[in-house]
Specification:
The structure is a single chain. By secondary structure, the protein is α+β, with helices and mostly antiparallel strands. Helices cover about 20% and strands about 40% of the residues. It folds into two domains: about 110 residues, Immunoglobulin-like, CATH 2.60.40.2250; about 150 residues, C8orf32 fold (Roll), CATH 3.10.620. Strands 1, 3, 6, 15 and 16 form a five-stranded antiparallel β-sheet that branches. Strand 10 and strand 11 form a beta hairpin. The longest helix has 15 residues.
């Protein structure tokens, strides 16, 4: 699939402010599942400095810094990208790697340690453990059936809502309410995977969705690291394994580190209004 994306974020301040350095995670990945063909980043006011680098988790990040006082900040990402993974199961998983308990190689164990840890201090963690274990038992201890069943259960039994603001709810909260935004159910999926020792992380990006929908948003889903196979995506919001209808931008053990824009400003008695406009067009390639 070919996609053209125009992602504009506008901040308007009630009075001029000093903009602190901003981290911009808007450049999509270029990997085995997608090919970035063009990317243009426009920032107004023009930064006095702009550098492109990789963060600690391998995400593309632009860091912009400013000088002076401004009453606005406009950030636009224009993207052309091709997704090439038509089959989400285009991998070979040995029988031993398709059964719990998960066994990673020594180098993988060290690299994935943080991505296997559940967030400490969560209330009612046991309910998520019970939820994960029930699905584990119903799939006879097999990894891929577990992931598929977990994805289906959340999609079929939870109400998906649109929630514009706020961090993801704690997994136990989403499980108790049986409802949540895409980021809420993705975090629940991730936590259930970690209960069983799977390395899992949060992904932020774009999803094709309905071409006729009036308003589009960034989307969130999960990726799981399978031994001998690598990272594979699962989207509990839509109840499917990720293929060519998703476009990944950033991935992290912590969802807050995948936000497209992270930054602050200095100013007293200032209010800010935010407007986001996201346009996405898709085209099926002609063979």
């Amino acid at each position: 699939m070919f996609y053209q994306i125009d992602h504009l974020t506008e901040y308007c301040f009630s009075r001029p402010v000093f903009l602190e350095p901003h981290q911009l995670r808007l450049r999509p990945r270029d990997d085995g599942g997608q090919r970035l063909q063009a990317f243009k980043l426009t920032v107004d006011p023009e930064p006095v400095g702009l550098t492109n680098t990789l963060d600690a988790e391998g995400n593309n990040v632009a860091i912009a810094w400013f000088n002076g006082l401004y009453d606005h900040l406009h950030i636009r990402a224009e993207i052309e990208i091709e997704t090439i993974r038509k089959n989400p199961f285009d991998y070979l998983l040995t029988p031993s790697n398709n059964r719990f308990p998960i066994v990673y190689q020594a180098n993988e164990t060290n690299a994935l340690a943080y991505l296997r840890q559940r967030r400490s201090g969560q209330e009612h963690e046991q309910v998520v453990e019970e939820f994960a274990q029930q699905i584990h038992q119903s799939t006879n201890g097999q990894v891929i059936p577990f992931l598929g069943r977990l994805c289906d259960v959340i999609h079929d039994q939870f109400e998906i809502i649109r929630r514009e603001e706020g961090p993801p709810h704690a997994p136990a909260v989403t499980l108790d309410m049986r409802r949540g935004a895409c980021r809420d159910v993705a975090v629940l999926f991730i936590d259930a995977c970690r209960v069983l020792g799977l390395a899992a992380r949060f992904v932020s990006g774009y999803q094709e969705g309905d071409p006729d929908q009036a308003q589009r948003d960034l989307h969130g889903w999960a990726e799981v690291y399978l031994p001998g196979t690598g990272w594979r995506g699962y989207d509990p919001t839509n109840g499917l394994a990720v293929a060519d209808r998703h476009l990944a931008v950033a991935a992290s053990a912590s969802p807050e580190l995948t936000l497209p824009i992270i930054g602050t400003f200095r100013g007293d008695d200032v209010t800010a209004q935010v407007h986001v406009n996201l346009e996405l067009e898709s085209e099926t390639p002609v063979n």
